[in-house]
Structure formats: structure tokens, C-alpha cells
Design brief:
The chain is of the alpha/beta class and 362 residues long. The protein is built from 11 helices and 17 strands. Strands 4-3-2-5-6-7-15 form a 7-stranded parallel beta sheet, sandwiched between helices.
Length: 362
């Protein structure tokens, strides 16, 4: 593994107004300064843009506390090749973290176009820019880290999910685009010797998360007195991973790139790796809902006498969904000495407190 010191480096974070991206920028400013971060986000309205604006304001506040560092925000789309080429030409990033993507399994069933644009064309533009960063004997990009997803495991029966498993049966277009990202990165690593690492995230949650995620959507509905639907009659299990654990994993991986070396034929072996980042502790959906309701009452988002049973409906499985997600994180532990460990209660407590401040106190 090639060690990378992030201090004084220029880092490009795509999707920097997103849930994981914004938290990563904050973590890098707080722990790796002096550092130079360029963020890009198209600020689309797939979900409430006010949350994205709030995240950007948090970054601005943090950046002001670190005058030795710089944070530059570009409002743009990674599927626009000219925008990406301009960023690489101007800023010459050493490490690229591609988190920009059209997220969500269910949305991909009705709106496939945005997935092709962002997840395939956008990622292709990033790969091409990384490739040309070595032109004219420039040092170029030392490490490309990109978001994959636990969705690539599809309807795999074997658990826990291992990165050694075959993942050739995606059950949604979203999953297919994420698997495609891994294949594209592998071919670019092989052809152009670009060190790249893909990270398969498992159900990320936390404060200022995505409103399309179950815990957030449930909270919105319960507050309005609406009924929440629990799929597969509550028999789904999810490997819920708190956002700070994801960010810590990304930060560590950024600092250790797959090594460039040649094979017996004298040609480069692809400096390529894929890891799971998950909690390795799948929680039953009904247990998850119970903890969420307890924490919402504790944070005074909901009244103490709230009648949950009257607002719960058990329904069949949704198209594109899977019954269980469960990460084998042994390789991440072995290579980077890290294992996510935030408990569901602790994570949902922080979410509930944030939700109260953001929605009820403002």
C-alpha cells in the first residue's frame, strides 16, 4: 500500500453538498489542515435543497476556523466534461473522492435517465480527467476513491457479503450503475495505472441525512400523523452504518492507495481495490423502528403518549429491494485498522436531536 499524507494536498470531493461528501469535507478540514479542498455539487432538487444549503453553511463556518486551509465550492455537474476538465486544469487534485451520484433504489425504477447521466457519464468524466492528469509527466492523481454500494450484492443469498462474492445479478438500475463504476475503475486502473479504491457503503444514516432514507421519511410521516409502511412485513434486516463511521473509513482509505507494480509480463498490475464499509451488525427493521420512536420521543420531536401501533402498516417487499444487507468488513480492518462501531441507538439519538433543531427549533 502506498501511504499518502493529506496535509497540504489538494483534494477534490464530488457531491460535496451531499450527506457523506459534506461530512467528509468537515472531517478533512478539522483533522488534516492545512489542506486544500475543492468541492463540486449540482445542488439538484432530488430532495430538499435547504438541507444541502445548510450543509454548505456548516462547511463555510468550519473553513473560517481553519485559515491555513482553503475550500473552494463549484456549483456544477460531473456529467459536464468541460466543468470537470476545468477543475483538474486549475486545481490539479492529488486525491479525488467521487461521491457525486444519483442515489436511491426506488427512484431508479421511475427516473433511469439521471442515473446514466450522473453515475455513468459523470464517473467516466472523472476517470478521463484522472487519466489525463499524468500528461506531460505530471505527478497527477495519486488516489481515486469512489462510492460504490451494498446494492451491488443484489439478491445474493450468502451472508455476510464479501467483496470476493460474484455480483453479477443487480436487482435495480442503481445497483447496475454502481457495479459498472467498479468495472470502469478496474479497466482504467489497468490501462492507465490509476490507483483506485471503491467503497461499498451499507445503509448510511445520521444527522442531515437524505430525506428519502427510511428513518428520515418515517420521522416526517409520524410527525404529520401519517402511517409508515414497513416492507417485507418487518422481516428486512439492514446493516445500518452511522455517517461518522463511513467518513472515518473514507479518510483512512484516502491515505492508503493500492500500490503500483508490474506483473510477470512487465505490464502494470491494476492498482485497484474494493472494500465494504458497514457496521457488520444487521438490525431488524421492526427493532430499528422501535429505537427510532424511543429516540424521537426522548428528543421531544414526538409526544410521550404517541400511538405508534396506529401509525404502522406491515406491507410486502418493494421491487428492487433485498431482504438483508450484511457487510464483511474484515479486509478493511486488516488493511486500515478500522471497523465501524457506532450503535444504532447512539446514531438515531444524534439524528433525532438534529431533526428537532433543524425542523422544530427553526
Amino acid at each position: 500500500m502506498q501511504k499518502i499524507d493529506l496535509h497540504n494536498k489538494t483534494i477534490l470531493v464530488t457531491g460535496s453538498a451531499g450527506f457523506i461528501g459534506s461530512n467528509l469535507v468537515l472531517e478533512l478540514l478539522n483533522t488534516q489542515s492545512p489542506i486544500h479542498i475543492v468541492g463540486i455539487d449540482n445542488m439538484n432538487d432530488y430532495y430538499d435543497v435547504n438541507i444541502k444549503k445548510w450543509r454548505l453553511s456548516e462547511i463555510d463556518k468550519c473553513a473560517a476556523k481553519h485559515p491555513e486551509s482553503t475550500y473552494t465550492f463549484v456549483k456544477g455537474d460531473i456529467s459536464d466534461k468541460n466543468v470537470i476538465d476545468e477543475i483538474f486544469l486549475t486545481h490539479k487534485p492529488s486525491v479525488v473522492v467521487n461521491l457525486a451520484a444519483q442515489a436511491g433504489v426506488r427512484y431508479s425504477i421511475t427516473n433511469p435517465d439521471s442515473y446514466i447521466q450522473s453515475n455513468l457519464i459523470g464517473f467516466y468524466n472523472i476517470l478521463e480527467a484522472c487519466r489525463h492528469s499524468y500528461d506531460n509527466n505530471e505527478t497527477g492523481v495519486e488516489h481515486l476513491v469512489y462510492a460504490s454500494s451494498s446494492s451491488v450484492y443484489g439478491s445474493n443469498k450468502k451472508i455476510p457479503y464479501s467483496t470476493d462474492d460474484k455480483v453479477d445479478n443487480p436487482v435495480s438500475l442503481y445497483a447496475a450503475t454502481k457495479k459498472s463504476n467498479e468495472l470502469m475503475a478496474h479497466s482504467y486502473s489497468k490501462l492507465y495505472n490509476i490507483p483506485s479504491t471503491g467503497l461499498r457503503f451499507f445503509t448510511v444514516y445520521g444527522p442531515a441525512g437524505r430525506p428519502d432514507m427510511a428513518y428520515f421519511g418515517f420521522t416526517n410521516k409520524l410527525l404529520k400523523g401519517e402511517t409508515i409502511q414497513i416492507f417485507n412485513y418487518g422481516n428486512c434486516k439492514r446493516d445500518f452504518t452511522y455517517v461518522d463511521d463511513i467518513v472515518e473509513g473514507v479518510k483512512r482509505v484516502m491515505q492508503g492507495a493500492p500500490e503500483r507494480k508490474n506483473g510477470e509480463d512487465g505490464l502494470p498490475l491494476p492498482p485497484y481495490a474494493v472494500y465494504n464499509i458497514g457496521n457488520s451488525n444487521p438490525e431488524n427493521l421492526l427493532d430499528f423502528v422501535t429505537i427510532l420512536q424511543e429516540e424521537l420521543i426522548r428528543a421531544q420531536v414526538l409526544p410521550s403518549d404517541y400511538d405508534f401501533e396506529a401509525h404502522k402498516e406491515l406491507v410486502p417487499m418493494q421491487p428492487g429491494d433485498v431482504p438483508i444487507t450484511f457487510a464483511d468488513t474484515t479486509p478493511l480492518e486488516t488493511d486500515y485498522g478500522f471497523k465501524p462501531d457506532t450503535s444504532l441507538r447512539e446514531g438515531l439519538r444524534k439524528f433525532s436531536e438534529w431533526y428537532k433543531n433543524f425542523y422544530l427549533n427553526n
